[in-house]
Every structure is written in C-alpha cells, then in structure tokens.
Design a protein that fits this description.
The chain is α/β, with parallel strands linked by helices. Helix content is about 45%, strand content about 15%. Helix 10 links the parallel strand 9 and strand 10.
Length: about 700
Amino acid sequence: MRTFFLAPTRYGVGLTSVSLGLVRALDSLGLRVKFFKPIAQLHTMDKGPERSTRLAQRIMDHEPPTPISTARVENLLGDNKGDELMEDIVALFDEARDGAEVVVVEGLVPTRNMPYANRLNSDMAQTLNADIILVSEQGEDSLEDVADKLEIAADSFGGIKNPNMVGYILNKLSKETADKLTPDGQIQCLPEFARKDFLPLGYVSQDPALSSPRTLDIANHLGAEILHEGEMATRRVNSYTLSARTPTNMIHHLKPGNLIICPGDRDDIVLATAMAALNGVPLSGLLLTSGIGISDAVSGLCSKAIATGLPVLLSQDDSYTTATRLDRMSDELPLDDNERLEKVMNTIAENLNTRWFKKHCASLVERRLSPPAFRYSLVRRAQKARKRIVLPEGDEPRTIQAAVICQERGIAECILLGKREVIEQVARDNGFSLPEGLIIMDPESTRGRYVEPMVELRKHKGLNEPMAKAQLEDTVVLGTMMLATDEVDGLVSGAVHTTANTIRPAFQLIKPKKDAGGLVSSVFFMLLPDQVLAYGDCAVNPNPNAEQLANIAIQSADSAVAFGIEPRIAMISYSTGSSGIGEDVERVREATQLVREKRPDLIVDGPLQYDAASVESVARSKAPDSSVAGRATVFVFPDLNTGNTTYKAVQRSANVISVGPMLQGLNKPVNDLSRGALVDDIVYTIALTAIQASAEKA
C-alpha cells in the first residue's frame, strides 16, 4: 500500500483542491484510493463539519473517518501528550485505509491560529511512513524563489534527500509559466532541481473558473437579503464592479459573469444593468448596498429584465465595506457546489504526472512500523485479548498508576499484590484514585494456598513445605505461582526488583519451552523516531554459543512478526562479511548458517557491523549484495555485554523509548521492567504481556 502525504508550503496554495485532484487522478488509474484528513481545520467562516472530509464523502464511495478536533489536538499538545495524539491518528488511519491500495492524506495549513501546523505535518508524515508531496504556488515569486521556498519547506521533513520526500506540485501558475515548464506536454524540473532527486509531480495553471463562486455563495458570505433569486445557484461571479461612474463610463463592465455593485438609489446603474440583462448578457447579479432597495417605479421598468434570471441581492453595508468583504472572501470550495468540485478535480488530475504515479504505485512498498503505530497496535490487541496480569510490586507508585491506566483503558485486568490500605494511601499521595474493578490481593491472606502446588512443582529439587512458605514471602515468587496455576495470564515485575529476581522464579516454576531447546532469551522493542526495531538478546544470556545465538535470532524474529514488524535479521559482529577473522566472528557466521538451515523462511545475514546493518549508504559500500544490510529490523547481538551496552547507548543518547525486555522461550509470559521505567513503559509492557498470553493460548 502507498500513502501520499500532501503538505502545503504556505497558506492559500489550494491544498484541498490538489488533494482531491490527486484522489481523482489515482482513481482514474484504476487504484483503490481512500482519502484521510487526520486533524480538522475549520476556516474562518466555517462552523463545521470539516470541509475536506465532507467534500471527499461527496465524490467517493466511502466515508472517511471524522478528523480529530483542533480543541483536542491543542489539549494534548498543551499537556505534552504528542505521542498520544499520534496514536489517535494511527487509529484513524487504520480505519481510513481499510481496503485501499493508496491513501491520500491531507496535512494542515499554517495559519495564525495554527502556528504549529508544520511541526505536526512532519510528525504525521513520519508516523504514517508516508511519501511526502509539497504543494505550493508561484504567487509573485520568480521560479528561482519558488525553488528556494520549496527547499526550505522540505527542511521541515528532513530535507529533499529524505527518501520519503518524493516531489512537489505547483498550483495556480500563470499559463505562460505552466507552458514553459511543460513543453510538448512533458513535465520538466525547476532548473534548480535538475541535479537533485526532487521531482515535479504536477503543474496546474491558474484558471479563474476554478475559483469562481456562485452568486449564491456571495449572498451567503455577505449575509445579503435575496430580493430576487433568479439563477443565483448556477451563475458564477468571475469579477465584480463597484459602480460609481455614469452608465456611459462603466458600460464595458456589463459583461458575462460580472457582479454589479451599487446603492439602490443609483437608478441609472440599475437601469443599465437591466438593459444588459434584457439583451442577453448573463451577468452574475446585481448587488445593492447601503440597505437601499430599488424604488417601485424603477422596479416596474426592470421586471422583465429581472425575470431573465438576474439575481438581485441587498447588503446593509455601504458599497466600500461590501467590496472589501468580497475581497476577503475565501476561495474554498463550498460543500454543495458539485459542479465546481468536479471541474477542480478534473483539471488538477489532468495536470498531474500520472505516469509517475502509476509507476510509483505499481511497486510494492513496505510500511514501516512507526512508534505510534506500534503503541497503538499494542493497546488495541491487548484490549481484544482481555487478559489478567499480576503485578507483584503492587505498592510501587508507578506500578499502581500503570494498573489504573490499564484498568480504565481496558488494556488488561491487573492484579496488584499488596495491602489495600498501603496501596490506597500511595494513590492518594500521588494524586490519583483507584477505579472500581481494580483487583488488590493481600499476599498475607493468599500465599498459603500456593504452598502445596509449589512443593509439587519443585519436589524433584528437594523443596519442602517450610522452604516453599519462605520463598512465597517474595511477592514475585507468589505472582509466578499464580501464573503457574493458571490464575493469571502473565506477570510484569522489575520496577524495584532486579532482572534476576524476576526471571529466576520463572525458570524454576514456569520453565522454558521444549521446542526452544530450553533457551530463554529476551528482546527489546526500540521505538526509534521513524520505525520500531527489535534488539535481542540484551538481558539474559551472557555468552551464547552458535546454537544458542541462532535460537535467539529465530525467537526474536518470531517476536517481531507477532508485533507487526517484518523481520530482516542482522547478526551483529565487529566485522562485516568475510572482512574479519577470529573466534567471535566465526561464531556469528556459524549461527547465521544455522538460522538459514533451521528457518529458510527467514531473511538473515551476518556477520554485519551495526552501521552496515542499519545505514543504507554504509551498506552499499560494505555489503552491496546483502538482502538485510541497511534495512535490518531485527538486530541480534553476539553477547550480553554488546547487546545491553548498545541498547542503553541508543536509548539514552538518542532519547529513544524501549519496550522490554520481553522474555522469549518461556511456557507462559513473564516480563521484566527497567528499574528506571516510566509509567507509560509499564503500561506498554503490560499490554505486550497480555498479547503474549493471547498468543500462547491460541
């Protein structure tokens, strides 16, 4: 599927018209195309609904989702919840793209009321992994200035070298300029972009007919009284004349499509207008000002002329104010002007580079999983799973707050282990309340019933009743026994406990899967700015051998698939390909071959250095024939020292959110937290655990 994000370089470029024109062009190519406007942007005179979405509804066989309101956007941004906003946008996008081959996304127009539009456009385009098309107009600028401004606008999206920055569309060009840029019908680059990969995707000439309002629209804009309706719903205003001269000196203005403006007591202008109408001139109308209508005597003389369909309007404002208000009238498409809408769409579609769009849409594109899309997917799938997750650190403030959020959002049914009075006091001290239905379980009153089952599980290791009672004093052990006896579906711990404290009981009581060769490993989901990557193993196995390293790679790839990431496995080493030798490199090379033998369905390559695995330009130099280099999504590190150091370096230096470590290879899901975990980290780990539990039961 392809996604095109249309972003304006400034106000007044005709963004909606170009967006809908692109929809028409793609539809004419036989593609299943959908339209999506993520955030509502009401214009000055609009009171709702959102104009672009409603116009799209009129021309398409589906109803795009309702955009997020500006008020909600500003509330979220004001509360520093930009991530939540992006997740909301991903949710709407998933709804909008259902059944589509191509989605056209209309961005925001920078205005005084929305100065943050450019930043949001960049965030939305990146979140949706969209191809970006800039929409601009020439105005009074030279073509050199237009090119400079396009390049400056592109900088908001990472510059024209950003692989997702595919090109530009210039709207409202003079015919002379458009002809200059399209000799023999072939679209040519602006001269400044001749040596840069920044393509012209359309040049649209200025056509007054495309922006001509109906006389009806003029009446609505001015709030004018309709003295005679005539053909006001079909006649269009191509120009207007504020008449202050005698009929002899303004008679050349009595031409088709012109709106005559004068006070009602200018009988000479009124009569001249009537005579033009009687002679078959299709004026767009007569607009009387200053609240003065036509006198009865003159009205009688004009009745036949008015009966030809001439609209007559009355404004309470004086002539100058009326003309000023007309100058400030928006040229946005009215929702009910189907004729103009069709003409605009067809004209723009005819002037787009459809050959390029056809070729571009024919090639498959992998949709990168952006961080907001990943988080949204986690939450949605967890909500569907409806699993019970035990939290042994039940009186820890972040854990309590995460449980509250999960309960309120339906992410999971959380069970806090701890004394109710302590947990309630912690909640009060931190300024939040506990929702109804949140389960609190007192370890003192519950641990006794797990003594016998625990002895049964560990009797082969010499565990007796007193030893079991002593170990069950640890709430992590207690929570693990609840999981072992199927009273809960998963466990999340580690906000105050070490990784060993969380994992050891799981090894003893839950046990590794037999089909994983007895190996338990971990994977982190690294939420980089433009996509989500999987890192394994960064938490469990200190020095895996080749067999174990191959199993870690397979487990990590399967985890990536389970959470929506297309796996391309890079087996990381300090050497790329055959450039290095040594025991460590040979171990990675052997592990790579084992993965290929065990799972021929997986794409894997190694050994690869990290930069060769992750950076396309480096990959072209170091591993030009690799199917993974430069495009890796699953990074498998050769040992714990390398993996843990790398994940923390990336996390801290690049300010990247990491979700995990998620344990792989256990019979039931147990997941560890970083002791520096934020509330959101805990929420997403709970969601992840719920999804794991759902997969285990499937």
